[in-house]
Amino acid sequence: MYQKYKTAQKHFWHPMGPSAPVAQKDTLIICRGDGNYVYDADDNKLLDGFGGLWNVNVGHNRTEVKQAINRQMDELAYYQTFDGIAHPRVYDLADRLIGMFAQEDMSRVLFSSGGSDAVETALKMARQYWVAAGEPNRTRFLSLKNGYHGVHVGGTSVGGISAYHFNHGPMLSGCHLLDSPWLYRNPWDCRDPAALTNLCIRQLEEQIAFLGPQTIAAFIAEPVQGAGGVIVPTPDYWKRVREVCDRHGILLIADEVVTGFGRSGSLLGSRGWGVAPDILCLAKAISAGYIPLGATVFNRRVAETIEQARGFANVVMHGYTYSGHPTACAAALAVLDIVERENLPENAGCVGRELLHKLQSLSDQFELVGEVRGKGLMIALDLVSDKRTRQPVDPMSGISARIADLTRINGVLVRPVGPKIVISPPLTINVSEANMIAEALHTALSDYR
C-alpha cells in the first residue's frame, strides 16, 4: 500500500534541510500512528521519541479527538471570525484557556494557525499596547541567544540561532540579543547557578540602561529553550527577569509554543518558574498536532489598555483566515480534556525525571556525550568532540543524524538537531517506554563507537 512512496519523486522541499536532491538522505515515510508509536512504510513499529515535532502530547490516533473532529465537521467545518462573526467552538475554547490561566490573570485570546503566527501576534500586539498606552516609542524587543521563536520575519528577528538569519537578508530592526542562562556553555565560563543568574541579569540591566527603557516594548523568551538545545535556565532566572521587566515597565512574553500544556512538567513552563507573563504564545500541544492551531493570550493589563484606548489604537488590525478555526478548536477542546483528565503535566514531570536520570549516565559512559540535560519530557544529549573544552561536534559532520539512525534501528525515533540529540515523546509515555528510549540510545552510542 505504501511501497510506491519509497521510490516516488519528491515535488516538495523538507523544512530546515538542504534542497539539493543529491544532499538528501533516504526518506523515512511515516504511514500511521497509534498511541505512543508510529509505523513506517515497511510497517516497522517505532516508539515516537519526538512526539511528532514536540506536539503530539496526547499520543496518536486518540478516539476522543477524532470523534470531536468528526462531530464538528458534520456541524460546521469552517467559518471565519472577522467582521463580528463567531461560532460556538471559538467561544468554548477561549473560555477554556482563560479559565486554565486564571492565576496568570489572562483575559483575551487571539487565535492563529500555529506557533510562528502566535509569536508574530505577540510582537505586533505588544507594540500596539504601547501605542494604546501613549508610549509609541517603545518598539524594541529583547530576547536570548539560542532562542527559537518561529520562522516569520518578526520571530526570526528575535530568535537567537544564527543559521535562521543567513539566507533571508536584513531582519527586523530594534531586536537585541542577550546571553542565555546556560550553565554548560556561557561567555563567563560560570558554573554556579546563582552567580550565572546575577551575570545575566546585570547584562540585561545594562542593555536596558543603554537602549533606554522608554524604547523597549517587551522581553520574549522560552521558559526552557527548545530548538536551541533544551537549555534549562537557572532556577531563579525567570523571577529575576520578571522583577526587572516590572521595574522598567517592559512587557514579558513567554513563548510557550513547546512548553505549554505540560511538556516541562507544569501546565505552563513559566508557571513552573513561579512567574506570570503578560503575554503567552501557544500552539503545538494545544491541539496535539491533530489540526493546526495557535493562540496568543493576553493578561488583563494588556487587554484593558488596548480596549480602552482612544481612536484607532483599540482596533485589532491583525488576524488570520483560520483564526479560531471551528474544527481546530473542537480538536483542542478534546485534547485539553485529555491533558487535564490524565494529568499529563504531572506524568511528564515524573516520567521525565526517570528518563533524565537514566540518560545522564550516558555522559559518564561515552566520550561523545558531553552533557545530558532537560526538564520534564524535553531532554537533549549534547554531543562533543572534546569533553574537557565542551567543544560541540561539527553540525555538518552528520554525527547526530547517524546516532538518530542507529536509535531508529533499535525501534525508537529521536531527533538530531545540529550537534544534539533531542527527545520529547508524547506526555502519555510510561516508565517502561522511557526505558526503551534510554536503552535504544545506549545501544546506538555503543554501535557508533
Q: What secondary-structure arrangement, pairings included, does this model have?
A:
Elements: E1 30-34, E2 37-40, E3 45-48, H1 51-54, H2 63-75, H3 88-100, E4 106-112, H4 115-132, E5 140-144, H5 153-158, E6 175-178, H6 193-211, E7 216-221, H7 237-248, E8 251-255, H8 269-272, E9 279-282, E10 294-299, H9 300-307, H10 326-341, H11 344-360, H12 362-365, E11 369-375, E12 378-386, E13 391-392, H13 399-409, E14 412-413, E15 415-417, E16 420-423, H14 431-448
Parallel strand pairs: 3-14, 5-6, 5-7, 7-8, 8-9
Antiparallel strand pairs: 1-2, 2-3, 4-10, 9-10, 11-12, 12-13, 12-16, 15-16
Helix pairs in contact: 2-10, 3-10, 4-9, 6-7, 11-14, 13-14
General description of the model:
- With 449 residues, the chain is α/β, with parallel strands linked by helices.
- The protein has 2 domains: 3-58 and 343-448, Aspartate Aminotransferase, domain 1 (Alpha-Beta Complex); 66-341, Type I PLP-dependent aspartate aminotransferase-like (Major domain) (Aspartate Aminotransferase, domain 2).
- Helix content is 36%, strand content 17%.
- The strands form 3 sheets. It has a 7-stranded mixed beta sheet, sandwiched between helices. Strands 11, 12, 13, 15 and 16 form a 5-stranded antiparallel beta sheet that branches. The chain has a 4-stranded mixed beta sheet with strand order 1-2-3-14.
- Strand 12 and strand 13 form a beta hairpin.
- Helix 2 (63-75) packs antiparallel against helix 10 (326-341), helix 4 packs across helix 9 and helix 11 (344-360) packs parallel to helix 14 (431-448).
- It is globular, with a radius of gyration of 22 Å.
- The model has no long low-confidence stretch (mean pLDDT 97).
